[in-house]
Structure formats: structure tokens, C-alpha cells
């Protein structure tokens, strides 16, 4: 490693869409000649990277405070290293634009959600002109998947099927920051998945703000179910997941596709937001609690072992104790395996920010605590029911904080539950990306423990190409360096897209 090598670091805040965007940002920087600072051996690693990129979120109230706090912490390093550059992108950049440079004048580049691909040029322009560059596009320049990518995982990958959202939920600022929904052609999505599988990926997650409205741009309301079935035809693809659907647009053809496609996993993230029909109406969520529970009933009828997770907001303006009681009722009836729970916070620019009857913090906190207590009870009961069952686990590099001291490994079951499992003495430890079949010995509130293999139970390992890909990276990495796959150059589009008959390819109508 020589002194002329430029290093970078990407700090990601927010959702899976942001995580995937950060992979694009890393790919762009690598293509422009930068090297991930974490990929440099300890002995050669510089104290600070040449470029730090913040990929921000604007959904939560503390998003801005978190960003400016980290920017403030970086200022001394920037002052001590004049050539260092700081860039801010993502949803908060799209929202605050030039205000970021006014509040933190040491920031060099601000770019929005629609022009991620401009980052290398903006960095060079800021360096050449010796002044901050703020560039925010109001509509998407290119679909993100056409950009180079530096994936975080050798065996698992994100695949965007759409960006943007056509809903108008009163609490959400995402549509104004990400724009209207833009869909990729099915053939492009499937081509990207096949390319990932050829690189050793065995699990993909389809991404969209609202995946089950996929097809709105090319006039096929059944496109998402067809896409799931087509994924089942890809040799070597072990697991398919997706996030997130919207209850209002969730249709039975998707349930059928999930149930009838073996590599589509029995896990579903279905955002509830509130169990009160009155609050759902105020949120502009175009479904009601009975419809929501009906969807879950049909999912479990076709997939009895499906694990269903959700999002819930507590303390929406005007929420009464009776409204909150409805949320508790639906939460208990839904039997969620886990829930992402949030206290409502005012987001400037959203309709809900102007609503009367904003609730006192103490009231919201007390309700939030009760919801957490109930969900903990529901999650624990569901996990205890799995004791004695056998689960197939996709091994990860480490999701358990105590894995080292307990000598366990970790991974995800088919239903996406986190599993910590013991490895029998005298056997070779499985590799991340391999599949292990183990027996569950204990269901904790937030994970499963599978120690059956060291207690006389069965133990089975199935090596995969994902495990091979992970192992190959370990051989290539420098001492102490982070190990990530090579940059993929994206999926370019040339000329008009040819018609893609996904239904014919997968045998569905």
C-alpha cells in the first residue's frame, strides 16, 4: 500500500434501501480509484480516510441530530488533514440540501437520493474549485442498479425492483424524498439475480418501498407474484426474501407464489402502523384492521410456519387510549414474531406534522412501554413453540454478541428468525454462506438457541457456492482487513427493452 492510494469510508443510517445505496456509493468510489479504508491491512491503514460519505435517513426525529453530531466529531480530523473530504447524501440531504453546508461549512459535497452517481464528479469538482458542491436532482437520473456496486456479503445480496412510492401516508416523508414509484423491467431484475448467483450469492432480498405494487409502470398488477415464481426457476438460488409490502395492495396471488415457490422464504414483513381503524384513516393507510388480520390468516393458511414481522407507530396525533387498546388487540391477534416499534415524532413537511392533538411525550412513552411488553410476550411464546423443532440455518459471519464466549455460531432460519447454534466437538466449523440443519433447544424472546447437536441430536451441514465465495475472500484479504466481494459494474441498459414474458417462463398465468 503506497501513500498515493486514496481511502474512503461510508457511514450508513436508515433502512435496507440506504444499505443498498451505500453499496452503490462504495462501488462508485472504488471505480474512481478509492480503496475502502477497512480493506487496508492494519499495518498500512491510515488514521483517517481521504473521503467520508454519510448516507442519511430522514424518517426519524433524531436523524438530523445524529448526522450533525458525527459531522462535529469529524471536524478536528478534517482540520488536521486538509485534503480530507466529507460528503453527505441520502434522504436528509435531499430534504435539507444547502442547509447542511450552512450548518457544517466543513462539508465538501451534498448530493440527493436521485443523483448518487454524481458523487465522484462532485468530489473532484469540490477539490478543484476549493468550495462545497451541492447538487440535488428532483427526479431520478438513472436506476441505481446501473451503477457499480461493492456488496457487503459474498453469499447474500440486495436487488432493487423499484424505487420511490405512490402512497401518501401522512406521517411519512419518503415519497417527497424518493419520488414516485419507478419499476424495473422483470428481465432486468432476473438478469441481475442470475449474475449475483454466478458470483456465489445464494440469498437475495428484493427491495422496494412497496414491492407489491411492482408492475404499476408497465401495467401488470400481478407482476410481483410472477417475479417471485420466476426466481424459483433460477438454479443455485437458495433463498428469496422481499421487503416491504403494503397491506392495501397485498393480493392472494402473492401468497400463492410464496407458498408454491420453494426458494421463497416463509417470512413476511407486513407493516401495521396502528390497530385503530380511526388512526389508520388519519394516517391515510387505505386498509383497516380486519383486512390486515385477514391477510395474515390467509398467509398462515397456506404457510403455517410463516413468521410475520411488522412496524407499529405509537402516539400518532389524536390517538386515544381506546385507539391504543385496538393496537394492543391487533398485535396480540396477529402473533407477530417481532415488531419494529416507534414513537411518533413530528417530521416537518409531512401532513401529520400539522395535525392538532400532538400527544405529550409521557403519554407516548407509557403506551410504548406497554406495547413493547406485550410484543415481548408474544414473541417469546412463538419462539418457545419451536423448541424441539429442526431448522435450516444460513450461517452468517456473526450476528451473536456472545458467540465467542459461548462458542456458538449464528445465522438465519428460513423464517428469518435469528438462531445461535452450537457446533459439535471434532467437526469442521461451517462457513458463512453454508446451510446447517440443527435442533432448537430453547426459544428466547429475540432469538432461538440450537444446542441439540452437542446434546446428542442431529447435525447436518450442506456446503454451498455461497460458502465457497466467502472462503475465497478470506484467502485474498490482507491481514486485519475487511473482506468484501469485488466491485460489480452494474446492469447497463442499451436500447429499448425487449418484451419479457415472465409468466410463460415460470409456467403461471
Automatic annotation (TrEMBL):
Keywords: 4Fe-4S, Cytoplasm, Iron, Iron-sulfur, Metal-binding, S-adenosyl-L-methionine, Transferase, tRNA processing. Binds 2 [4Fe-4S] clusters. One cluster is coordinated with 3 cysteines and an exchangeable S-adenosyl-L-methionine. Its EC number is 2.8.4.3. Residues 384-454 form the TRAM domain. Residues 6-128 form the MTTase N-terminal domain. Signal peptide: none annotated. SUPFAM superfamilies: Radical SAM enzymes. It holds the Pfam family UPF0004. One of its GO terms (molecular function) is metal ion binding. The keyword Transferase applies. Belongs to the methylthiotransferase family. MiaB subfamily. NCBIfam families: miaB-methiolase, MiaB/RimO family radical SAM methylthiotransferase. Catalyzes the methylthiolation of N6-(dimethylallyl)adenosine (i(6)A), leading to the formation of 2-methylthio-N6-(dimethylallyl)adenosine (ms(2)i(6)A) at position 37 in tRNAs that read codons beginning with uridine. This is tRNA-2-methylthio-N(6)-dimethylallyladenosine synthase. It comes from Flexivirga oryzae. The lineage of its organism: Bacteria, Bacillati, Actinomycetota, Actinomycetes, Micrococcales. The gene is miaB.
Amino acid at each position: 500500500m503506497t501513500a498515493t492510494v486514496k481511502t474512503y469510508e461510508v457511514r450508513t443510517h436508515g433502512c435496507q434501501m440506504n444499505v443498498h445505496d451505500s453499496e452503490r456509493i462504495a462501488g462508485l468510489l472504488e471505480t474512481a480509484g478509492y480503496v475502502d479504508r477497512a480493506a487496508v491491512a492494519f499495518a498500512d491503514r491510515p488514521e483517517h480516510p481521504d473521503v467520508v460519505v454519510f448516507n442519511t435517513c430522514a424518517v426519524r426525529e433524531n436523524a438530523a441530530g445524529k448526522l450533525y453530531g458525527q459531522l462535529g466529531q469529524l471536524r478536528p480530523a478534517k482540520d488536521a488533514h486538509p485534503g480530507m473530504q466529507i460528503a453527505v447524501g441520502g434522504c436528509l440531504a435531499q430534504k435539507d440540501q444547502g442547509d447542511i453546508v450552512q450548518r457544517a461549512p466543513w462539508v465538501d459535497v451534498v448530493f440527493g437520493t436521485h443523483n448518487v452517481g454524481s458523487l465522484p464528479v462532485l468530489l473532484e469538482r469540490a477539490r478543484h474549485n476549493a468550495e462545497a458542491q451541492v447538487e440535488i436532482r428532483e427526479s431520478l437520473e438513472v436506476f441505481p442498479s446501473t451503477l457499480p456496486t461493492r456488496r457487503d456479503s459474498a453469499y447474500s445480496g440486495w436487488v432493487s425492483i423499484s424505487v420511490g412510492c405512490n402512497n401518501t401516508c401522512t406521517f411519512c416523508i419518503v415519497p417527497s424524498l424518493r419520488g414516485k414509484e419507478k419499476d424495473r423491467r422483470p428481465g432486468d431484475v432476473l438478469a441481475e439475480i442470475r449474475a449475483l448467483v454466478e458470483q456465489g450469492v445464494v440469498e437475495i432480498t428484493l427491495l422496494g418501498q412497496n414491492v407489491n405494487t411492482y408492475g404499476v409502470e408497465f401495467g401488470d398488477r400481478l407482476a410481483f407474484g410472477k417475479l417471485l415464481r420466476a426466481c424459483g426457476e433460477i438454479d443455485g438460488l437458495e433463498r428469496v426474501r422481499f421487503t416491504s409490502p403494503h397491506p392495501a395492495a397485498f393480493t392472494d396471488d402473492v401468497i400463492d407464489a410464496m407458498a408454491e415457490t420453494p426458494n421463497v422464504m416463509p417470512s413476511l414483513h407486513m407493516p401495521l402502523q396502528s390497530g385503530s381503524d380511526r388512526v389508520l384513516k388519519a394516517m391515510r393507510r387505505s386498509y383497516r384492521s380486519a383486512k390486515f388480520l385477514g391477510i395474515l390468516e390467509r398467509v398462515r393458511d397456506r404457510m403455517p410456519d410463516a413468521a410475520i414481522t411488522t412496524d407499529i407507530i405509537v402516539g400518532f396525533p389524536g390517538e386515544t387510549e381506546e385507539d391504543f387498546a385496538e393496537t394492543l388487540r391487533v398485535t396480540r391477534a396477529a402473533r407477530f414474531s417481532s415488531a419494529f416499534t416507534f414513537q411518533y415524532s413530528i417530521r416537518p413537511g409531512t401532513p401529520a406534522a400539522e395535525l392538532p392533538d400532538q400527544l405529550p411525550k409521557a403519554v407516548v412513552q407509557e403506551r410504548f412501554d406497554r406495547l413493547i411488553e406485550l410484543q415481548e410476550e408474544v414473541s417469546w411464546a412463538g419462539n418457545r413453540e419451536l423448541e424441539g423443532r429442526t431448522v435450516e440455518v444460513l450461517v452468517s459471519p456473526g450476528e451473536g454478541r456472545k458467540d465467542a464466549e459461548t462458542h456458538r455460531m449464528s445465522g438465519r432460519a428460513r423464517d428469518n428468525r435469528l438462531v445461535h447454534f452450537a457446533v459439535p466437538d471434532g467437526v469442521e466449523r461451517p462457513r458463512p454462506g453454508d446451510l446447517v440443519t440443527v435442533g432448537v433447544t430453547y426459544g428466547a424472546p429475540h432469538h432461538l438457541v440450537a444446542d441439540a447437536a452437542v446434546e446428542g441430536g442431529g447435525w447436518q451441514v450442506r456446503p454451498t457456492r455461497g460458502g465457497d465465495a466467502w472462503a475465497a475472500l478470506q484467502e485474498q484479504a490482507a491481514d486485519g482487513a475487511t473482506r468484501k466481494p469485488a466491485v460489480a459494474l452494474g446492469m447497463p441498459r442499451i436500447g429499448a427493452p425487449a418484451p419479457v414474458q415472465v409468466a410463460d417462463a415460470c409456467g403461471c398465468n
